[in-house]
Amino acid sequence: MSDFRDEQERQWPQLEAMKEYTDEILIPPGIDASIWNGIRAARPRRRRKIYTRLAAYTACLLLLVSVASVRFSPVVAAYVGEIPGLRALVELIHYDKGLELALENDFMQPVGLSAVQDGIRMTIDGVIADDSRIVVFYTLENEEKQKSVINLKTVELVDNKDISIASSFYPSEEGWKSIQGTFEFYPNQGAGIPDNLNMRFVLDKVTETATTSPEWQLTVPVDKAKFEGLKEIHDINKTVTVEGQKITFGTMTVYPTRIEVEVNYDPENNKRIFYFDDLRLEDENGETFGTINNGVTGSNISDDQQVLYFQSNYFRKPQQLYLRASSIRALDKDKLEVKVDLEHKKLLTRPDDLLTLNEFDQGILFFGFKDTELKDENTINGSFSNDYRDASGKTFHSSRGGSTITNGVKEIQYYLEQMDYQSPLTLTISDYPTRIHGDIDIKIK
């Protein structure tokens, strides 16, 4: 593997020579049709609650299958074609057009640091960073070809607790050879981007004879001069009304890796707005940049305030830009609570007949959704808040969830703490496949 790595490092200078050529080429409009959903996983930010969407394990498997059929734009293909190992890294971000553009525009910081623990080599391949987030690309290699199954246990910055972390990790099988993924870091308010990421990784590794937890600590430099001052701010400050619900779009901040849009919902609205199905930025050529659909999709400041994250068009520099949408998932505020009778295994209250309780077994609530549309198969994974309470008013926390699709019917699993409860339990809906509709068309510039 050392020859592979030496060749990769030797090829990195070619990027500079290719830069002048690639700067002159644009990706044809319509490439967004090939974007597909990646793994959705995120950890809470300390300053404000993270508004996330976690894909089911089936989505993870779908991603693995889809990698083989990814179509690169001409620019990306030319950019990575002669660089061993980089094509696989591009596959990791193909769901995010903004990160692709960042790579095309020489925004990747090559790193190439590696260390070996317990026969597994961890390599930090590169970094894409700005003031909004840091995307770290890594490769794990099974150098001793051990029969083992590994799972990511811990990722942390050992000396910086003001930066939150999300990661993508592909499940391994016995005899695996190589795994690639990303870690994403989000600075909390006032934290800033450090000069170095002192990263600690721990894997659960199960071999034929023992269970071990190999650990790596690597210091990854971040070239802050590369992105200093790279952002644009637009004051939208416009209010729209959709089926009686008032929505105000505030400031939009454009970074190279993502776009942040502040959204405020009128407290007098009678519906809780969960998410926009098709909110997007569209330029004068009809090219769209949608909301980020993997990892951290937005942040909840309060019930009536959010920051939504979009794929970035920073390197496109559009002359005209519009914010558009037509469909929003929402539910009446007086229907947000679901009461579950544990003794009789039935729902005492629910929003409508769409939601069913299929089973309660071994501390797991199995919910079903009738007539689930294809577009809802991922969105309803996070239908309930992690916090719930029993009849005594005591609050508990669900730390796990899952989902399955059987004969086209969606079922989600909600894991309860092992406690003696006073029935009924009260769960709070955090997403639901009911909608309001109306054309949103706001000119930003």
Automatic annotation (TrEMBL):
Membrane-spanning intervals of the chain: 50-70
Domain DUF5643: 232-339
The DUF4179 domain, residue ranges: 47-141
Keywords: Membrane, Transmembrane, Transmembrane helix
Pfam families hit by this protein: DUF4179, DUF5643
InterPro entries in alphabetical order: DUF4179, DUF5643
Protein name: DUF4179 domain-containing protein
Taxon lineage: Bacteria, Bacillati, Bacillota, Bacilli, Bacillales
